[in-house]
Write a structure and sequence with these properties.
Blueprint lengths: L1 H14 L11 H10 L4 H17 L8 H11 L3 H14 L4 H22 L1
Helix pairs in contact: 2-3, 3-4, 4-5, 5-6
Length: 120
């Protein structure tokens, strides 16, 4: 009899769980798969692009770090201009990341400038 009174309370408490604050779009599983098999990093990039586009079109806030992660994936593939743009988006969306993103952007811009000067 005692268990019968506990069961509805447990069910009620389980139904009151807070919803997730951000939508990650399977980021953690895709990142793990990419680390386990580096050939799957391209899949992670495509998945992040789709997820970010979905979040932006539905006017939801993109989870912290996703712009920066996508920027890093572009940087690793040699597209530093896209990386800078995505780092700027991360900095604008998440003011807490301003220091790190500003340093990353400045570093990339210096590297780009050095390449231009070396090519002359």
């Amino acid at each position: 009899m005692r268990y019968l009174s506990i069961l509805p309370i447990a069910a009620l408490l389980a139904g009151c769980a807070a919803p997730s604050l951000y939508q990650w779009g399977g980021y953690d599983q895709a990142l793990y798969a990419g680390y386990k098999d580096p050939a799957k990093m391209e899949t992670l990039r495509v998945q992040l692009e789709k997820h970010i586009a979905t979040m932006e079109t539905s006017k939801q806030k993109v989870a912290p770090g996703l712009y920066a992660e996508l920027g890093t994936l572009y940087l690793q593939s040699g597209a530093s201009d896209k990386a800078i743009a995505l780092y700027s988006q991360e900095r604008a969306a998440w003011p807490e990341s301003k220091g790190l993103m500003t340093a990353m952007i400045q570093n990339l811009e210096r590297r780009q400038q050095a390449k231009v000067e070396a090519a002359k």
